Structures are given as C-alpha cells and as structure tokens.
Amino acid sequence: MTITTWFTAVVEDVSDPTNGGRVRVRCLGFHNSDKAELPTEDLPWATCLLPVMSASVLGIGISATGLVPGSWVFGFFRDGAEMQDPVVLSSIASSSDVVGYNNGLGAFDGVGFKDPYGSYGFSGGHDIPASTASGAQTGGLANYGAFAVGQSGILSSMENPPKSPTVGGGFREKVIAIARSRIGNTYTTSPNRGPGIAELWSATSFSGGYGNSWCAAFVCWCVQQTGVFSESARPKEATVENFESWARGAQPTVSLIANPRTINAGDLITFKNRSHIGIASTASDLNGSFSSIDGNTPPPAGVKKPWGVHEKKRMVNTVKNVISINV
Question: Where are the domains of the chain?
Fold first, then answer.
C-alpha cells in the first residue's frame, strides 16, 4: 500500500458509538471550516493506532482513547483518494483560541477546526500537561486545571479519566487537590453526561449509569478518593439531604454546622436557595468571600465554557450548612 494522502487534523467528536476509541476529524486541505456546509456529524470516523505493547483485541491492552475535542492529530487516509477511512497516528502539541465561540452553551458559530464545546484550547492555555508546558511550570497540584489536558479530568468518550493525584496531608488537603484535578470536566452534547461523569456515579449507591444531577455524586467521589473513610462509612447517597443526614450520624469526626459565619478550606458546603453541594477550596475572608469547587454548575462569570466542574467565588451568606470533616 502506497500512502499518499497524509493529513493534519483537529478532533471534533470523541463519542464513538462503537466504543472503539475512534474520533471524528476535520482535516486541513481536505475539509473546509464551514460547519454549515460540512457539519461535525458528517466528518469521517478515524481509527487511532496503538503501540505494539497493546494486544488491542478482546478488551486486552491499553485504551485507544485519550484525545479530546480540539486535539490536533497527524495521520493518513487508508483508502487513498476516497478519503473516508482516516487513521490517526499521533497527536500534536498545540494551543488555540476561542474565536467564533458562541455563548458557552456548547457550540462554535459555524467555525470548524476548534473544540466544538469550548472546553479546551483557550488563549493562554496549553494542550499539553501544565507540568511540562513552557511558561506554565508553577509547580505541583497548582497546575491541575482546564488548560492542562493531561491533568484536567476530561479524556475520552470511553470515560476513562486519569487516576486521582496522590496527595499527602489530612482530609482537607486531599479533597481539595482531588476536586481540583477534575476542574474542566464538562457536559458534552447531553445535559449531565460527559467524559468522566459516569465514573463519579460509580462512587454512589445509584445503579442507573447517569443520574439527573451530579453535584453530590462529584462530592461522593472526591470523598471516596481521599481514602480517609472505609467504603461502609463514607457517604454514598448522591443527594444534599443524605449528605446532611450522613454528617449527623458520623460524629465526632464529622460536624454539621447550620448558617455558618465562616468557611474553612476543605469544608463540604450546601446552599440555601437550591439543592446543591460543593467543596470549599479556600477559607472565607473578612468580607465573607470564599471559593468552592462544584460539579454540575455553570462556569464563573465571563468564562465561556459549558456546565461542569468549576471553581467559583461564593459568599458565606449563601451557605445553608457546612459539613466539617476533621480527620
């Protein structure tokens, strides 16, 4: 076979219906950027090659996934001039901007060659792990975030995100670092569903795959990953009310504080005006302001991203209860 049709392309879809790790690609020089003329759903599915260390059969070996919408890749068309059977050989370190991004609701305004959801590739970020990105070496867990794809928590349609970071210290330090490692984990085309979200539900007693709302599932998963509670003793019911009931029965290491005046970093927090729970990532200041990391929440003001796991500024007077874990 003589290969003459090489391409450089951007990934626009990782939700392979066959669960085979394929990705849809828009190829420079072969496809145009007008999504009205050539929508993402009409792009060809590309097979991703694996190294010989993987058996790649019968579920044996390593996953073919790892690319995200917005990843740039290099490959060739296996069917030559027909150009309907692309094969991805490798990814390319890259960064991009958000020109053409709509309003954070999940689409670019007809512009191809970009992440369709605006989750990756913002100006100032890198599409390689922040720990190795030039100019982004701020050290350790501070690098966990949406710009560091290798550490951000969204990896693939196979829903196989990276393992949680190994963190020292007590519960508070651990739960904040683990929560931060999932910042940027967002919805895809369906509300409450996206890469890595199903894994969060696996930490709960819910057995239906995805639930309708996953803020409490996110906190269940973060608490589980700290390893400070046994499986029989940790919270598993993915509702705010059950978290509060769990706190009442887990004394003395766990306290439930109503209408708190202050917030400590690492507290679990529930809110007055809605059934929602998050993890305080900073202590409250003299003005009553603090930050929290929440799942199933809109992005901070002015940030053009879908709903997902985000770190946001909060006020103490919006907090209904604090669940304080001191272990």
Answer: 197-325
Coil/strand/helix, residue 56: coil
Contacts of 205 (CB under 8 A, 6+ apart): 236, 237, 238
pLDDT on residue 118: 56
Percent of the chain scored above 70 by pLDDT?
Answer: 72
Counting beta carbons within 10 angstroms of the beta carbon of residue 95, is it exposed (0 to 12), middle (13 to 18) or buried (19 or more)? Answer: middle
- Looking at residue 115, its pLDDT comes to 67
Tell me the C-alpha to C-alpha distance, in Å, between residue 104 and each of 2, 48, 191, 300, 317.
44, 29, 13, 11, 28
Q: Is the pLDDT of residue 313 over 70?
A: yes
Q: Which residue has the higher pLDDT, 196 or 228?
A: 228
Residue 199 banded pLDDT, cuts 50, 70, 90: confident
Contact of 297 with 318, CB cutoff 8 Å: no
Q: Does 197-325 carry CATH code 3.10.580.10?
A: no
Please give the average per-residue pLDDT across 151-159, as a whole number. 33
Which of 218, 126, 133 shows the shortest CA–CA distance to 181? 218
DSSP of 164-221, one letter per residue? PPP--SSHHHHHHHHHHTTTT-B--SSTT--TTHHHHHTTSS--SSS-S--HHHHHHH
Judge whether 119 and 186 are in contact, CB under 8 Å: yes
Residue keyed to tokens 């304080």: 324
What pLDDT does 66 receive?
A: 76
Phi and psi torsions of 104, nearest 5°: 80, 5
Angle between helices 240-249 and 215-226 (to 10 degrees): 40
